[in-house]
Amino acid sequence: MTATPASPTGGPENLTVRTRGSVLAQLRARIAGEVLGPGDPGYRRARAGFNRLVTHRPAVIALPENHFDVVEAVRFAAEEDLRISVQCTGHGTSAPVDGGLLINTSGLNRVTVDPIARTARVSAGATWRSVLDAAAPFGLAPLMGSSSGVGAVGYTLGGGFGWLGRRFGLAADHVRAFDLVTPDGTPRRVTEAGHPHLFWALRGGGAGSLGVVTSMEIDLVEVSTVYAGNLFYPVEDAEEVFARFRDWAPAQSEELTSAVAILNLPPDEDVPEPLRGGSFAVVRGCWSGEPAAGAKLVDEWREWRTPAVDMWGEMPFSAADSISMDPTDPMPHMVTAEWFDDLPDAAIDVIAQRSRPAPGTAPLIVVGEIRHAGGAVARGAAAAANDRARSGRFLFEMIAVVPDPHVALTVESTLRVTRQELAPFVTGAAYLNLISGPERAARAEHAFSAGNRRRLTEIKEAVDPLNRFSRSDIG
């Protein structure tokens, strides 16, 4: 999945001049959902994902209402020699889609739960919030990430390391089947027994590059109540907090997935008053075992040093958004990530210094988080396509908001320099769910071992020899 074959012979440029006429009409006649071209009402809304830093300019946007609409849209693209990209929420973005066909799956949002089998069938446009709400009445939960507003299918195709990860593994590990439309417009039911190579590739290695996944069937886990939250310490204590976490977290049960972070919060009214506009070193996580045992673990931190604010407590897992407190409104942002096997003091110093705003300045980095991995995340690596992307002990993520396009280069430079400073300490593996923009394409090969990369390339070339699915948005 590294080499890029030659583009389709016609190319999107030839279609652009014709989209206002007969070609758009042809697709509209073939599908029940909307078809939009540049200038049509709703075009701007339909092309906009969660990350407003990326502006897509597709020649055609299809908003399918059902699986058959996707089949027809993909066949249309094949007939017109168009490249295709797929977007639901667009939290994790690749390169902008210029020309070609954008399939916006947000209308495919159905979720059904089988409480006896403990499974859910999730359509391509459903977010984790829909899955949570459907599963929670039965005491079940999906392996979602830090935000329930993320698209469930795209997140899962990229791997999916969430707050239950150390106990249960990645979201991709719990897929039973995919409904896939391949680049030639062929619908396939992909399982381990039927199309095993595609099944292996889609679970962490085929996000948006092997076709359109219109739905997936996933296992749910028996988790309803958790002990979770955040302890807020003064940001000046970040190095001490991070160093203690490095030594403390590996000794804990897999029922705990935990992290430390520097959080730079905006001065907005929806941020609680004690935290509004402040910067903090945070100990956060989710304990999915007996709540009393989780409280005892967190007491070790409370006894070490009294936090400025204590927000750990027993809660329904359906309230897990409160752990990471991710923004819910679309915004322009950049994100990068690195894996560590060890966290020497020198690496902690770099992370703290780069994440913590200089006195008297507005913060550039919103979140610098180190999440403890291992457990089921690492155990599943040997059988996974994205084996390198889940083998480290600590996953570091940096998120920066880009409020003004003029500061985009400054933000990009800060993320790049931080990665350069951390280079002596990292494994070099790439976790693609947490890498955005051109960097994700540049580092994609580092999510896989050499053998898996060769196997994925062979599958890609067999399924999509024209590289029609050359771009995707995760989540």
Helix and strand topology:
Elements: H1 12-16, H2 22-30, E1 34-36, H3 43-47, E2 60-63, H4 67-79, E3 84-87, E4 101-104, E5 111-114, E6 119-123, H5 128-135, H6 152-157, H7 165-168, E7 175-181, E8 187-190, H8 196-202, E9 212-219, E10 225-234, H9 238-248, E11 256-264, E12 279-287, H10 291-304, E13 309-310, E14 313-316, H11 321-324, E15 333-340, H12 345-355, E16 365-372, H13 376-379, E17 394-401, H14 408-422, H15 437-443, H16 450-463
Parallel strand pairs: 2-4, 3-4
Antiparallel strand pairs: 1-2, 5-6, 6-9, 7-8, 7-9, 10-12, 10-13, 10-14, 11-12, 11-16, 15-17, 16-17
Amino-to-carboxy terminus distance = 20 Å
Helix count from the secondary structure assignment: 16
Strand proportion: 15-25%
Low-confidence regions: 1-14
What would you call the structural class?
A: alpha+beta
Task: Give me the oligomer status.
Answer: single chain
Mean pLDDT score: 90
Shape: globular
**Main sheet specs:** 8 strands, antiparallel
Q: Total strand count, please?
A: 17
**Rg (CA only):** 22 Å
- Helical amount among residues, as a percent range? 25-40%
